Structure formats: structure tokens, C-alpha cells
Amino acid sequence: MTRFMLVLRGDVTKDYSHLTPDDMQRILGAYEAWAGRMAGEGRLKAGHKLMDEGGRVIRPAGKSSAVSDGPYAETKEVVGGYYLLDADDYDHAVRLCEGHPNLEFGSIEIRQVDFMGGPED
Question: How far apart are CA 3 and CA 45, in angstroms?
Fold first, then answer.
């Protein structure tokens, strides 16, 4: 199996104010159901929602680095969470993401993990 990172991005330009508490529970349940299926198949290795606020961005600044708050309000997409998932190849990873609830709110970026010669825990 090959390990992939799924980066869940949300479209912050959409208006979500119409969502009711019941809607939010349904959406959360859909995320939990998808993760539960992947865990049940032994594919899910990790996955977490990221905090909405309080991030930092580090950029080079000459011979040192500069730290600023982030992400920024002017961005159209924010990273809201991630999963580490085992799949046969990219096509298989794409198929596993079909119907994922995040596709209702944004996108999923799929990237193969390169263990750089280290162990593939």
C-alpha cells in the first residue's frame, strides 16, 4: 500500500449561515461515517480537523525568518483538516474520496507521502 495525505480545503467565500444545528450534526456525521469506513478497512492512519484560528505562517526573511498570523481572511480556501490514508495508487485514492462530504464545501488535495528512506510506520 502507498500512503497518501488528503488535504481538506474549504471555500470561505460561501455563505454557511443558513446551516442549522441539525445540518451541522448531519455534516459531522457524514465525515465520521467516511472516516469510519476507511478505518474499518484498515486504510485510515490519522486524520484531524484543524483549528479555525490562531495559525502562524513562517517565511524566509534574509538570513532568518519572519512569523506572521495566518491564514488570512482574503484567501478563498483554507485548509480545514487532513487524513493520512493507505491506497493502492492515486486512482484508488481518488475513488476512495468519491462522495466525501468535504466536496460539498470545498476540495480535497491528494498527495503521496514520500518517506524519504525512513520507515513507513
Answer: 9
Pick the CATH number of 2-13+22-112 from 3.30.43.10, 3.40.718.10, 3.40.50.1780, 3.30.70.1060: 3.30.70.1060
pLDDT tens across the length of the chain (121 residues): 899 999 999 988 888 899 999 999 999 999 999 999 999 999 999 999 988 777 888 889 999 999 988 766 567 788 899 999 999 999 999 999 999 999 999 999 999 999 787 766 6
Tell me how far apart the alpha carbons of residues 72 and 58 are, in angstroms, rounded to a whole number.
13
In 1-121, the DSSP E strands lie at 2-11, 44-49, 55-61, 64-70, 77-87, 106-112
